[in-house]
Design a protein that fits this description.
Layout lengths: L10 E8 L4 H11 L4 E5 L9 E4 L2 E4 L8 H4 L4 E4 L12 H19 L5 E3 L9 H10 L4 E3 L20 E2 L4 H13 L6 E7 L10 H11 L5 E3 L2 H5 L2
Parallel strand pairs: 1-2, 1-9, 1-10, 2-5, 6-7, 8-9
Antiparallel strand pairs: 3-4
Helix pairs in contact: 3-4
């Protein structure tokens, strides 16, 4: 049987969270507790900004971590780009797309002291086009881009520049748990990835931190699963 992840595993679990908000600190405490790994997608020109959002009628904090904190907060996880200022990329010129993505990548490398190769498209829904993906592929040093479209599949995808996560934790709680149980029980000889994405501030909307910890307990600690950042899972 071939082994795909670190030449040892056929199954991998990874997480991805956007915006670089202060709730990431609490999330990282949970991930570290259960030895889980995530990628955090950050808008470098929004770091340090204060704000709030109203989601589902609930007011939640949307304060960005400070630039000088980035290296320490995310030291056990991957830092990835999310554009400088979170624009809708399909509305931009090619040069503006390159600037938003590549300068964000360079800023984050300087702040973290580590190379940055990944990215999540900013915004919800269909937040990219094939043209946007091609511009990033051909004119930046980004090696993969995550969309916000759930695949509901564990299969490895061929095009890493339009990579679809398995589930969106905030809108798909029951599905996430059910697929988690399926993934744990699965016996496979091909590469399979369970990829969860979201925003850490969403746990504050209905105080679902305990529920997420239950998921961490469920999915962690299995000897036949590789737990890595997006970059590690993709072998980049």
């Amino acid at each position: 049987m071939n082994k795909y992840f670190c030449n040892k595993y056929n199954k991998a679990v990874t997480f991805s969270y956007d915006d670089g908000v202060t709730q990431d600190k609490r999330l990282i405490e949970l991930l570290d507790k259960y030895k889980l790994k995530s990628t955090f997608n950050i808008n470098s020109e929004r770091l340090g900004q204060e704000g709030e959002l109203i989601r589902e009628g609930v007011r939640v904090s949307h304060i960005k971590n400070k630039p000088e904190e980035i290296a320490e907060i995310y030291k056990n996880h991957e830092i990835a780009a999310h554009t400088l200022t979170h624009p809708f990329l399909p509305d931009l010129s090619d040069d503006e797309i390159v600037h938003q993505v590549e300068q964000d990548r360079l800023n984050l490398e300087k702040l973290s002291g580590r190379s940055v190769v990944g990215m999540a498209y900013p915004g919800g829904g269909i937040n990219f086009t094939e043209h946007v993906a091609d511009v990033i592929r051909s004119r930046t040093n980004i090696k993969y881009c995550r969309t916000t479209v759930s695949s509901h599949s564990f299969d490895m995808q061929k095009d890493l520049y339009v990579f679809e996560p398995t589930v969106y934790h905030h809108k798909e709680w029951d599905n996430m748990f059910e697929m988690g149980r399926q993934f744990i029980e699965m016996d496979t000889d091909k590469p399979q990835i369970f990829y969860v994405w979201g925003h850490a501030y969403e746990f504050d909307i209905h105080n679902t931190w305990d529920r997420f910890e239950e998921f961490c307990k469920l999915i962690s600690g299995h000897s036949d699963i590789f737990y890595g950042t997006n970059r590690e899972v993709f072998g980049l």
